[in-house]
TrEMBL record:
Alphabetical keyword list: Membrane, Transmembrane, Transmembrane helix
Designated name of the protein: Tripartite tricarboxylate transporter TctB family protein
UniProt organism field: Propionivibrio dicarboxylicus
Pfam families per UniProt: TctB
InterPro entries: DUF1468
Entry annotated with the keyword Membrane: yes
Signal peptide start and end residues: none
All copies of domain DUF1468, residue ranges: 19-154
Transmembrane segment boundaries: 12-34, 49-71, 92-122, 128-146
């Protein structure tokens, strides 16, 4: 039996979980399409016809994947996600999650400035003055690109309101 140190998730567990989740999605699609009819009417297929069969295909394919995972499972632990990989994923998605959270309260531009500044300083080890210059430049460039040229307003927060940016 071969083990991998620092394994957080095994490949076998993820194969089982993925097969079950995709089968569930297929079942939801099938169930939802029943509301619209899955047969063939006078004018052709009813609205739920194609989604129903796509859902069935998804359930069938998920069943095949589940069976393959069970058949090919051996007495070994093959890593899907190790501790080191989890740290890398968290280092990437953690700041993005915080960007979304901050942007929802303080606006996209403030969130963008904070995100770029923190990632450049703490992960990229750039000097503070360069990180601040890039973060502010990106926010200003995005403001002109979206708000002025394309006239697509982005989410703004209290700072933009204080500065009179609508």
């Amino acid at each position: 039996m071969r083990t991998t140190s620092g394994v957080l998730l095994s490949r076998f567990a993820m194969e089982i979980a993925t097969a079950l989740v995709t089968a569930s999605i297929g079942a939801v699609v099938c169930f939802g399409s029943l509301e619209f009819g899955t047969g063939w009417g006078d004018a052709g297929p009813q609205p739920g016809y194609f989604p129903f069969y796509v859902g069935l295909i998804l359930i069938f394919a998920s069943g095949v994947n589940l069976a393959m995972a069970l058949v090919h499972h051996r007495e070994r632990l093959e890593a899907f996600l190790t501790t080191e990989q989890a740290h890398r994923v968290t280092a990437f998605f953690g700041p993005m999650f915080l960007f979304v959270l901050v942007s929802s309260f303080l606006g996209v531009y403030v969130g963008m400035i904070l995100y770029l500044f923190c990632v450049m300083v703490f992960q990229g080890h750039y000097p503070v003055h360069k990180a601040l210059a890039v973060a502010l430049s990106a926010a200003v460039a995005n403001y002109f690109l979206f708000e002025v040229w394309f006239q697509v307003p982005l989410l703004k927060g209290p700072l933009e309101a204080m500065l009179g940016i609508h």
